Every structure is written in structure tokens, then in C-alpha cells.
Amino acid sequence: MPLCQKKSPFLVARVFKRFLLGCVICAVPGWSSSQSVVKGSIEDESGLPSLIHVKHVDYPALQLGTWQSEILVDELGQFEWTLPEGLTGGLYELVAPPWSWMVWVRAEETATLHLEPGTSTARRLVGSPGQSRWEGPHPTQWMDSLVGFQIQANRLRAEALVLRSSGVSLNERDSLKELSRALEEEFESRWSRAVANCEGAWACDLAWQIKLNESVNSGRPMQELDSLWKKSSMGQPDRTWESRLASPGAYSGWRAVFGGWWQGRQVDWAKLNEAVFTANLDSLAAGMGGRWVEASREEMAAAWLDKAVEEPDALVRSVWETFPFPSAFSTAYEELREQRKVGRDGWEVGDLAWTLPNGELGSIREQCQQPWTVILALKNGSGLAAREREMFTQVAENMERRDVCWVVLSLDENEGDWRQTLSGRRTLDETVGWVGNSPRAMESLGLAVVPQVVVLDEDGRLVGRNVPLPSQGLQKRLSNLLPKD
Asked: Which run of H or of E encompasses 227?
């Protein structure tokens, strides 16, 4: 059984389906100098956002990207989104906290985009997957249909496995085999029609990724999976790894077949550590074992990038620091490492911009001259946040630290809620700022829920992982964390 079979087939299907929600299957993105305008609407019964935040996904294989200009939404929920010049097509993440949509936009997009909240309750401030659809002719339909059938087939296979384990008669076993054969034939028929008509490299890659996932889930042997990868649009010998890393399907398809190699019995951990110590690439391949002994340097880099994504550890860091892997992989690895630093201990938040109580724009550096900053992030309407705010003030009074700036940070979506939060000030000396429903601020400060406390040191870096709320021991934690008087 190949290593990737250890991954749940249903998990693979769910993850891929989640990725496809909102993805527009399209031609290779256009990189013309003209700008594209996408028309759309957003619906949310809890209240329409005034802004939709936009991140261009620079590395679709790793879902890493850079923030772009926001989309303005009118009072009816309508918007016109002008894509950044030079980025007229590609994969984007649209964010209106707590909801997030992954959208694949074609150059010169003519379809209209509709965004809605997800079907389940959001449990985080940001990043809960929403639902999206395109109005008008779009290749999305065949992709959704194919993935939907794949999920249904997986469900039927699971039921068949349950029956087998329960001890069924021979005739029932034969009928289960027929069911499995029929599902495979139906999938193959649907997939063949889809891949024959796919528009451009990205769409073909995603179609082949579905094929590879189906083969993995069906328990195909590694030899067959390896052959299928080589036949695919992603495995052609003239295909560069730069293009694979830039595709939403190519590197993911490779990982579906060859990923998780470190879970195999052939791995010699002592030899891997020795290879790093001696900086010997051949020894590294021998320590990985199996097919990696004959693998190219590019594929070995792909393998270690896979481990960096799934199970980063000290060995992964040592490997990347020791071996000169191709620049496409090194750049992707560094981007991955930098992205993982955001919002964690040691991350430099920078000069966080906010709105002051008088309506003027300011920043945390302007308002906080003290070397240390303790922030309570909250939103209006939360009874827990209101209680923690009272206790937060008590902690500040009890500690009497002149080297600390105590900040109440409002994440309210609109000015009305912000004014309600502002009305809770006990004194005008309380430092209060409003950053709105900004995923950039939440990401930078590592905010996942409200209320939440974060601490910045004298260099403006996050310190003290998982700082407790005022009611849960904030004062004691700060006594150990802050410099001694």
C-alpha cells in the first residue's frame, strides 16, 4: 500500500472540495497590462460588510499570498472589483471576517460573482470558508459535478467496507464488486469528458488532480500511481517545477501520490541526520529510501517542501539550511516560513494604524510611548468581552506599571458598534483604538477569538504565547513576563 493511502480518502475529498468552493476553473491566467473588472454581490443576514479584503495567492500550491487593495461594497451588497494591473487573472482569497472565499478569476472575466456565508457557524474571527457561485457560463460546473460524484462514490465505498467487515454473503460481496466497478466506470466517463474540454493548463491540472485523488482513494498500487502522474498534464518531462508550484493542482497532485514519504518504514532517521552533518545529498537520498535514491534534486526538494508543509521540525530546517535546492523551491520554502511567523511569538507587528476616538487616524506608536503594550481585543455585543474589559482596567490599576501602555482594541465591523465600544470607556485616559474588521490586523496580532489579550515588547514584537484573559490570570502572567521593577 502506498504511503499516501494512510491519509483518509474522505479527508482528501473534503479538503479538495473546500478548495473548489468558489474556485473558477478557467484558462491560464492572463497577464495583460489592461485591468479587469469583476462585478459581484455579497449576502449576509447578520449585516453587510463595507469592505471585502483581497489577497492575491502568489503560491497556489501552498496558498500563500500578498494583500491587495480592498473592494468597496455598497449598501445593497453590490461591488465592482478592479483587479490589480498586471494581475488580471489568477487565484484570490476574498475575506470579509469571519468568512473567506477562494476565487479563481479569469482574465477579462464576464461572469458575476456571488458571495455568501458558510453553511456552518463560524468559530473564528477570520478564515471560516464561505460559499460562492458564478452567475453565467463558467467551467466551474463540470468541476463541481465531478468532485461531487467523487465524494458520493467515496461514501458508497465506505458503506461497502462496513458491510464487508460485518460478514456478508458471497452474493452480496459480488454485488459490492459490481457497485465498485460501476462507480469506477462512471467516474472515468465523466472525467474523460471533462479533461478533453478543459480550458488551459490550470484547469487541466485540477482535472488531473481529481483523477489522481480518485486513484489514491481507490487503493491503486504505487507503480500505477507513478505511471498516471507521468501521463498527466502535471508530470510531463518538459514541465518545470516553477509552473507546478504556481498551479493550484500540480504540486497538490504530486503530493497526493508521493507525499508523506517520511511515514514509511524505509526511512532511516539516523542516516538523514548524518547526511545533514556531512552535507551529502546522496546520503540524504539513501536515508529517505525507496524511490528517492534515484530521484532528481528537484523531486527531493519537492519532498522536503512537502514535509515542511505537513510536519515542520528541526530536521526540516537543517535540510533546507544545508542543501542548495533549486531556487523555485527555496523561495517557496522561505515564503512558507515567513508566513508561519505572522502572528506568533517574535513577530514584529509594526506600526498598527487605527482610528482614534475623535475620528482621526492614528497609530499604536503615536498613542503608546511606553516600551511595552498590553492589548485587549474585543467587539461590541459580547457580554464576556464587556466583563473582561472591566477586569482589564482593574489589572492595569493594580499593577501600576509606567512602562506599559494598556490598550482596548476594537474589531467592530461598523462605526455604530465602534461607538458602542467607545461608550464603555471608564476614563478619557483609557487608550482605545479601532482597526475595524481587518484580517490584516487580526493576522498580524495573531487574533483568533474575542476577547483576546496580546502583549508587545519594547521592540514591538509579540511575546507570551496564549496570554490569559484578565479573569484567567492575566496579572500573574504579566508579573512574570514584564521586566522586574
From this structure: helix 222-231
Q: For residue 275, which phi and psi values (nearest 5 degrees)?
A: -60, -40
DSSP of 76-143: TSEEEEEPPTT--SEEEEEEETTEEEEEEE-TT--SEEEEE--SSPP-SSS-EE-EEEEESS-THHHH
The helix-helix angle for 327-341 and 297-310 (nearest 10°) equals 10
CB–CB of 325/300 below 8 Å? yes
The tens digit of pLDDT for each residue in 435-484 reads: 999 999 999 999 999 999 999 999 999 999 899 999 999 999 999 999 98
Torsions phi, psi of 99, nearest 5? -95, 150
pTM comes to 0.82
Q: Are 266 and 289 in contact (CB under 8 A)?
A: yes
The answer to whether the CB of 41 falls within 8 A of the CB of 114 is yes
Residue 455 β-bridge partners = 374, 463
Q: Alpha-carbon distance 458 to 404, whole Å?
A: 10
Q: Which three cell numbers mark 1? A: 500500500
**Residue 297 neighbours by CB under 8 Å, 6+ apart:** 281, 325, 326
How does pLDDT run across 96-146, given as a tens digit for each residue?
A: 999 999 988 887 888 899 999 998 888 889 999 999 988 886 666 677 788
Q: Map grid coordinates 490589480 to a residue.
A: 84
Beta-bridge mates of residue 112:
135
Is 270 strand, coil or helix? Answer: helix
Identify the structural domains of the chain with CATH numbers, from first to last. 3-11+141-258 (no CATH), 26-138 (2.60.40), 261-341 (no CATH), 353-481 (3.40.30.10)
d(C-alpha 243, C-alpha 224), whole Å: 24
CA pair distance 59, 343, nearest whole angstrom: 20
DSSP E strand boundaries for 285-363:
353-355, 361-363
Cell 508561519 sits at which residue?
A: 340
**CA 218/CA 232 separation, integer angstroms:** 18
Closest CA to 305 of 237, 356, 255, 346: 255
If you search the block for the grid coordinates 523561495, which residue do you land on? 331
